[in-house]
Specification:
By secondary structure, the chain is of the alpha+beta class. It has three domains: 32 residues, no CATH class; 177 residues, Sandwich (Jelly Rolls); 148 residues, Jelly Rolls, CATH 2.60.120.10. The protein is 14% helix and 34% strand. The strands form three sheets. Strands 2, 3, 4, 5, 6, 7, 8, 9, 10, 11, 12 and 13 form a twelve-stranded antiparallel β-sheet that branches. Strand 6 and strand 7 form a beta hairpin. The radius of gyration is 26 Å and the shape is elongated. The two termini are 28 Å apart.
């Protein structure tokens, strides 16, 4: 209390009348430093368990200013659709309006659980976060691809290319799916069972060249996720579909096992876009790890919005836009973040363990501009006149592309 009053100044703890200051630039002044304990109090009604998850909403930095669309959401608040073989939950533009470019699904398949044969109007990008699954896909000229993918490995299915997913033993799998369309929904896909059930038997007979009687026991309702038998050896499945030849580019890639494009004692960044994962022509991805106290440097992306999936740990992100507008939010495992194209942002690991999250972009290649990198590649005298900083100090700014700063 005494410390607060000393900071605030004035009789009775009232804020002292003063102009903008470093770290507190706005008029009227923002933040808890510029009010009284009585005014800062929150008698309720309130939900402490929920409010405690968002300290930066309850007590934002005094540099936050203005209002912004909510850029936080979470799979933790998304309802699950559960069937015999597993479950799924989704975050789309319908329940996360800022996310116009990306929709996403968190799915679990038990051992042998099958996400039935289907296709989408949007491209699908996926990453396994636990266990392993078998993927199948057929390309536009009839070349089949079958592969097993484990933790840290990804897949990409172009729009319209039919595919399936199946959990492998002993633990099944959990994974994230991303669509390059914010309105796409996992609960509204083109399913093989739906099409057959809604096609006359004589048409099925003519199409497949077999008697209509063959189709007498087909499901009359879609399967979506159902319990199946665990698949046999991968090589046997691959041999069974090899007749049409192999696709020129693999539909899977090890993002977690790839060489970092940036790595230091404070963290690492791994990338997968069309330059390294050639089939992925509409989605670029970064897998980032930050040590406790480390910071993902101030930057922005000139070519696409950034959609985030927070995998483990906890952190804080501030987003900056014209206005000025700046807002800070807290994130934990299972949460989703979103930064519109061109808006500045930075991320801090505020926890005691490593922070890991995915950044997804609806773009063929990954692009970013770092604030420190930009200032280091601008004539020092020009920067000095903007910021009132000695050019010798500017020369100490990091000039790394894709910066990770220690705590």
């Amino acid at each position: 209390m005494n410390l607060i009053r000393r900071i605030l100044g004035g009789a009775g703890g009232a804020p002292a009348a003063k102009g903008p200051s470093f770290g507190n630039p706005d008029e009227p002044a923002q933040g808890a430093l510029n009010t009284t304990p009585a005014a800062l109090s929150d008698p309720g009604p309130q939900n402490p368990a929920l409010a405690g998850q968002f300290p930066s909403f309850q007590n934002p930095p005094p540099t936050d200013v203005g209002g912004m669309p909510m850029f936080w959401s979470s799979f933790n608040i998304a309802p699950k659709r559960i069937q015999a073989g597993g479950w799924a939950r989704e975050v789309t533009a319908e329940n996360f309006p800022i996310s116009k470019a990306i929709a996403a699904v968190n799915m679990r398949l038990g051992p042998g659980g099958i996400r039935e044969l289907h296709w989408h109007l949007a491209a699908e990008w996926g990453i396994v976060t636990n266990g392993a699954c078998r993927v199948t896909v057929l390309d536009e000229v009839g070349r089949a691809y079958v592969q097993d993918v484990g933790q840290g490995e990804i897949w990409y299915f172009p729009p319209g290319q039919p595919h399936s997913l199946q959990g492998l033993g002993p633990d099944g799998c959990e994974f994230l799916i991303v669509f390059d369309d914010g309105a796409a929904s996992e609960f509204n896909t083109l399913l093989v069972t739906d099409w057959l059930a809604h096609t006359p038997p004589d048409v099925l007979a003519q199409n497949f060249g077999v008697p209509a009687e063959v189709f007498k026991d087909i499901p009359l309702h879609d399967l979506w996720i159902f319990q199946g038998e665990e698949p046999g050896p991968l090589a046997a499945d691959q041999a069974a579909v090899a007749e049409g030849g192999a696709p020129p580019n693999p539909f899977t890639f090890s993002l977690g096992g790839s060489k970092p494009v940036r790595e230091n004692g404070s963290g690492s960044i791994r990338l997968a876009d069309s330059t390294t994962f050639k089939v992925s022509t509409s989605i670029a991805a970064a897998l980032l790890s930050l040590k406790p106290g480390a910071m993902r440097g101030m930057h922005w992306h000139p070519n696409a919005d950034e959609w985030q999936y927070w995998i483990k740990g906890e952190g804080r992100m501030t987003v900056f836009n014209a206005g000025p507008r700046a807002q800070t939010a807290d994130f934990k495992a299972g949460d989703v973040g979103y930064v519109p194209k061109g808006q500045g942002h930075y991320i801090q690991n505020t926890g005691a363990t490593d922070l890991q999250f995915l950044a997804i972009f609806k773009a063929p290649v990954y692009q970013e501009v770092g604030l420190s990198e930009w200032l280091r590649h601008t004539p020092p005298a020009l920067v000095a006149q903007h910021l009132n900083i000695d050019p010798a100090e500017i020369a100490k700014f990091p000039q790394d592309h894709i910066g990770i700063q220690p705590g």
